[in-house]
Amino acid sequence: MRRIVYLLMLMGTASAAAEEVIDRVAVSFGLEVVTLSAIRRQVRMSAYLEGKPVEDTPEARRAAAERLIDQSLVRREMNLSRYTPIPMEEVREKVEEARQKLGLTAEAFEAELRKYGFTTDDFLNELYWQSTLLRFVQFRFSPSVQVSEEEVREYYEREYVPRLAKMVQGQAPPPLDEVRERITNILSARKENAVLEEWLKLGRQAARIRFHEEAFR
User: Fold this and answer.
1) How many folded domains does the chain comprise?
2) In this structure, is residue 156 part of a structural domain?
3) DSSP string, 132-194
4) Per residue of the chain (217 residues), what is the pLDDT tens digit?
């Protein structure tokens, strides 16, 4: 009887140790944590979206952890503002459109996801949150962004025209009025990113983030 109890204790310890390895806390800040399994999942998802092999290196895990921290900070702000997430059906339709444009059958799409350890539902949930977070960032920070006519003209003359001349030699650039909206959108996105980066910087400082280095070795 004692031997059976001892074996059960060993099995329980081994199971707990395995769970600790899988879900070891890699980052903590406030009452929130980022687990090692979540980081590795992010590494695999990023590799899939970029069409690259999975590289579970310390550098890749660190970069994934940074992204997850930023997402957590934005999600916290989103919850405080009671922002309504986008409908899942909208994301499902976009995924279906993308699959058809790529010429993949549903079976081929699922097989490709399985190579990275995901199901179709995993992928939908990831895109659902990514899309929701992106829209919230635009909702939260876009109102503070203004692009002046001077900035549009400066971008056109200093960046747009020279870049186009390198890409297509001997062709006159389109007039500013034809590309004004495109340039305005580019500059707006730049400013939104700058505002977001500053907001995340302040949020990180307040959160007192701690990286548990054993998860990044």
Assistant:
1) 1
2) yes
3) HHHHHHHHHHGGG----HHHHHHHIIIIIHHHHHHHSTT-PPPPHHHHHHHHHHHHHHHHHHH
4) 433 333 223 333 333 333 444 579 999 998 899 999 999 999 999 999 898 999 999 999 999 999 999 999 999 999 888 888 889 999 999 889 888 988 999 999 999 999 999 999 999 998 898 889 888 988 898 888 999 999 999 999 999 999 999 888 888 899 999 999 999 999 999 999 999 999 999 999 999 999 999 999 8
Rounded Cα distance between 115 and 110, Å, is 9
Q: List residues bridging with 34 in a β-sheet.
A: 27
Structure tokens given for 120: 């179709």
Check residue 125 and report its DSSP letter: H
The model's pTM: 0.77
The sheet carrying 25-29 orders its strands as 32-35, 25-29, 210-211
Domain presence at residue 90: no
Q: Is residue 117 part of a domain?
A: no
The C-alpha atoms of residue 155 and residue 109 are separated, in whole angstroms, by 40
Using an 8 Å Cβ cutoff, are 114 and 160 in contact?
no
Q: Is residue 203 part of a domain?
A: yes
CA–CA separation, 186 and 151 (whole Å): 11
Residues 6+ apart with CB under 8 A from 186: 155
Residue 25 domain boundaries: 2-82+145-216
